[in-house]
């Protein structure tokens, strides 16, 4: 199993790593990584013609490639590079969706250190184009997942530079976000919560 | 400079490889790769708040990663994997856009061998969700670029399995597609042609 320096599991696209990730799965929703259950949900949504949402491949800077005879090109030196956008985007009934997924072991707040300026700028640009931008946040200790609107995230992000707090309180996410209930198939039917966000956005 | 086995230049994301690709650029539009000019256009569209469109990073299967002391994680063995979607997607004034870019030295037709079943399925799913799917085709000899609707591509793709031809005629692309005129900034203002496609789609 391959991990990033931050401990996340590497998954360049949905299908090829499935067997690798399966080793991670315990029984029930606890023990599953957020990325894994989102990928499962996306697969379900794709197969049922509900939505087309994919995780973007991880951006990598390639330094060296070898071309062994009669074999596929082999990358022999490369480094992980920082993403300039969010991890997920796609389309749901005509709506452009764009989001990132974050897990935290912090019980009372989601630290803003989970985000980069680039991602905030990206989500802001998406909102300006009429897209549906949000984050999927999982509080690991409570085992609760929320769809939290990007405009709220942006407000907290900007406030931190004017003496505001460096995190979004759990209570705020619980109050303003849309709770994702666990299901059987998919395990994390997050589009039900996104639907509520879309309805609220269009009001 | 790093090349794929098919001769294309590797570009995991827009910014980091810019200097690498610049070596490719001659004067005028001839000599620029299609990918390069699309990236320039996307940068322009982003900076002018016109649209948010990105090329997805190239999907890679990572086999081995080394963690040298005090240094960034170094990927020491990885392979290029086949993309299950198209290369570009994003949002333009509320519309979800999804497309691939293809160049051909063939003067009379675009060979269907430029596409994979996965990409066709993906474009089909996008159309079903109400997205704007298309391909950007450049005929290198004529030095002409067209926005060609995904539903037309899908029709030709399916027909080939029922004895149809293995390529889309240049004449058909010229007649049904939307020509992209060259400009100064951006060099390839393809959204003007996409706008016409959107208008026709909504009629």
TrEMBL record, chains A, B:
Pfam families associated with the record: RecU (PF03838)
Cofactor remark from the record: Binds 1 Mg(2+) ion per subunit.
Transmembrane residue ranges: none
Molecular function in Gene Ontology: crossover junction DNA endonuclease activity
Annotated protein name in UniProt: Holliday junction resolvase RecU
Subcellular location(s) of the protein: Cytoplasm
HAMAP family found in the cross-reference section: RecU (MF_00130)
Taxonomic lineage from the root: Bacteria, Bacillati, Bacillota, Bacilli, Lactobacillales
Matching Gene3D superfamilies: 3.40.1350.10
Function of the molecule: Endonuclease that resolves Holliday junction intermediates in genetic recombination. Cleaves mobile four-strand junctions by introducing symmetrical nicks in paired strands. Promotes annealing of linear ssDNA with homologous dsDNA. Required for DNA repair, homologous recombination and chromosome segregation.
Domain of life, per lineage: Bacteria
Known cofactor(s): Mg(2+)
EC assignment: 3.1.21.10
């Amino acid at each position: 199993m391959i991990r990033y320096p931050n401990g996340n599991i590497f998954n360049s696209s949905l299908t090829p790593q499935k067997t690798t990730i399966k080793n991670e799965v315990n029984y029930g929703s606890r023990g599953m990584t957020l990325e894994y259950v989102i990928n499962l949900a996306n697969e379900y949504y794709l197969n049922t013609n509900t939505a087309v949402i994919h995780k973007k491949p991880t951006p990598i800077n390639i330094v060296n490639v070898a071309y062994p005879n009669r074999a596929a090109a082999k990358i022999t030196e490369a480094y992980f590079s920082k993403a300039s956008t969010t991890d997920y985007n796609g389309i749901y009934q005509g709506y452009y969706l764009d989001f990132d997924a974050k897990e935290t072991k912090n019980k009372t707040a989601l630290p803003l250190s989970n985000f980069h300026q680039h991602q905030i700028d990206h989500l802001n640009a998406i909102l300006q184009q009429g897209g549906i931008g949000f984050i999927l946040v999982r509080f690991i200790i409570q085992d609760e997942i929320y769809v939290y609107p990007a405009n709220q995230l942006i407000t907290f992000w900007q406030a931190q530079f004017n003496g505001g707090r460096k995190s979004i309180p759990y209570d705020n996410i619980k109050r303003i976000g849309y709770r994702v209930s666990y299901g059987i198939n998919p395990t994390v039917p997050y589009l039900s919560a996104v639907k509520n966000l879309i309805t609220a956005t269009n009001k």
